[in-house]
Amino acid sequence: EDKVVQSPLSLVVHEGDTVTLNCSYEVTNFRSLLWYKQEKKAPTFLFMLTSSGIEKKSGRLSSILDKKELSSILNITATQTGDSAIYLCAGPNSGGSNYKLTFGKGTLLTVNP
Amino acid sequence: ETGVTQTPRHLVMGMTNKKSLKCEQHLGHNAMYWYKQSAKKPLELMFVYSLEERVENNSVPSRFSPECPNSSHLFLHLHTLQPEDSALYLCASSQTGSQPQHFGDGTRLSIL
Asked: Do B105 and A97 touch (CB under 8 A)?
């Protein structure tokens, strides 16, 4: 059974700090890995990673995939209070279905002023 | 505004009631999903429809009954729910199975 493990489960930082969130993905047939940000409501899509070693970047957020290790990190630089959210990592089911995503439990990030 | 609209936002119902959750997507996507999100647990996929055909049914109890009348609308019909069914129910859509899913804001369901 596919498994997505995120660490840490929660993290408290001060504004301006840089944070690194981790995701490891135990799967037999890797295809892609996705990151989402969830504030009080809808998870919003951040990145989809399919190629190892290529960084995806959006403003202060960036993510990179290590396909060999089946892991990914999400970096947030110069954190702001608006970055406070649950960050979710997910991967498609390796059993063949394109539609099924396995989600991790998420990392709860709290950014204090 | 995510392009995926869910109603109602909150729902409180008794165990013997029948109610329905509605989801509408304005993104022109072909696939729609229902997820359950409970406290301290990962998002759990319930159902997937692609072009109005159900393609995933994740061992969900029969008290949850999905309906997809067209590729823009998805319903979740609820009847005789249990207290442990209290959760946030999220709808999502994607262009294809391999494209990122876009989520609605969810319906917060409480079973008395």
From this structure: no
> Taking Cα atoms as reference points, which of A74, A72, A84 lies closest to residue A113?
A84
- pLDDT value at position B104? 96
Q: What is the pLDDT of residue A40?
A: 82
User: How many Å lie between the alpha carbon of A87 and the closest alpha carbon of chain B?
Assistant: 12
| Residue B89 amino acid letter | Y
pLDDT single digits (tens) A37-87: 999 888 999 999 987 778 899 999 999 998 888 899 999 999 999 999 999
Nearest to A41 among B40, B58, B105 (CB): B105
Taking the C-alpha atoms of residue B74 and residue B68, their distance in angstroms, rounded to an integer, is: 5
Integer Cα distance of A54 and A75 in angstroms: 14
Q: Is A2 helix (H, G, I), strand (E, B) or coil?
A: coil
Nearest CA in chain A to B108: A41
Sheet holding A61-66, edge to edge: A3-7, A19-26, A71-76, A61-66, A56-58
Minimal C-alpha gap between A10 and chain B (Å): 12
Report how far apart, in Å, the C-alpha atoms of B20 and of each of B59, B60, B73, B93 are.
Answer: 20, 16, 13, 18
**How far is CA A43 from each of CA A37, A87, B31, B37, B100, rounded to the nearest angstrom?**
5, 9, 17, 11, 11
